[in-house]
Amino acid sequence: MNQGSLYTNIQNNIATVEFSHPASNSFPSELLARLTKVFHELSDNNEVNVIILKSEGEKAFCAGASFDELVAIDNFKDGKQFFLGFANVINAMRLCKKPIIGRIQGKAVGGGVGLASACDYVFATDKAAIKLSELTIGIGPFVIAPAVERKIGVAALSELSLNATQWHNAYWAKEKGLYANVFNSTKQLDEYVDELSQKIAGYNPEAVQEMKQVLWNDTNHWDTLLEERAEISGKLVLSEFTKNALEKFKK
Questions:
Q1: At 152, is the secondary structure helix, strand, or coil?
Q2: Which pLDDT score is estimated for 89?
Q3: What interhelical angle do 76-95 and 29-43 show, nearest 10?
Q4: Alpha helix positions (H), 19-126
Q5: What domains, with CATH codes, occur in the chain?
Q6: What is the mean pLDDT, run by run of 10 residues, along the chain of 251 residues?
Q7: What are the backbone dihedrals phi and psi of residue 213, each rounded to the nearest 5 degrees, phi first?
């Protein structure tokens, strides 16, 4: 369980991908690699027409990347590789032929916001506040920024990233375009996501795949872009500012 868990269930042409980790559903590198592989596999699985991405439990959706791994980085190569974790997942979600529905039951921080933003259609509960706190430790949400900007625009990305200590509630995220709808309970959320996924699973798969490509138009350069962003973060994480900030967080 130190590396978390990842389960995939396929029924009626719907694949449900559920991840978990004891530390608020955060992602160590190994779990990110497994999630990347799953999206590539489901993309080519003819028994799957739509994918639901969710996390375990009733609390946090995702606390981002592993803090323990972040603290342990001591060279550029490892730093870049660490930040490539979410880059690879986002690109796998972008390239996946099947639409991905995000089911966000709780708070999302950093990479968790990136995951939600990389979904094609996202629904949440009223507890699903979001925050990009990276600047508080001397780095920035560089890798996930393209996905977040694609959903909410530059102005909202500026507010979210520069006001790095403030939580923005689920209704703010809906107003900006990250969430399509917000529900008062997890039960209502699940009922709606189940109903919608069944509808999408019954559409013409070829038409849905073509629509997915339309939705991700003008993102073909992201393989290079997100790697460049990972390099920026890989350098900054070695800065004296970041090392001092991380040490304070550890204490």
A1: helix
A2: 98
A3: 30
A4: 29-43, 67-72, 76-95, 111-118
A5: 5-201 (3.90.226.10)
A6: 89 98 95 98 98 96 94 95 97 98 98 98 98 96 98 98 97 98 98 98 98 97 98 96 88 69
A7: -65, -40
Residue 57 backbone phi and psi in degrees, to 5: 90, 180
pLDDT of residue 2: 79
Which amino acid type is present at position 191?
Answer: E
Look at the alpha carbons of 189, 190, 195, 199 in this order and tell me if their dihedral is positive or negative: positive
124: part of which helix (H) or strand (E)? strand 121-125
Residue with tokens 């991405």: 53
Q: How far apart are CA 49 and CA 153, in angstroms?
A: 29
Query: Distance between alpha carbon 57 and the CA centroid of its chain, in Å?
Result: 17
In this prediction, residue 3 carries a pLDDT of 86
- Please state the pTM of the whole predicted model: 0.96
Kindly list the distances between the CA atom of residue 89 and the CA atoms of 40, 51, 79, 144, 222, in Å, as whole numbers in the listed order.
10, 14, 17, 10, 12
- CA distances 59 to 16, 22, 77, 109, Å, are 19, 11, 34, 13
List helix spans (H) across 120-221.
145-162, 170-176, 186-201, 205-215
User: Whole-angstrom Cα distance, residue 171 to residue 181?
Assistant: 9
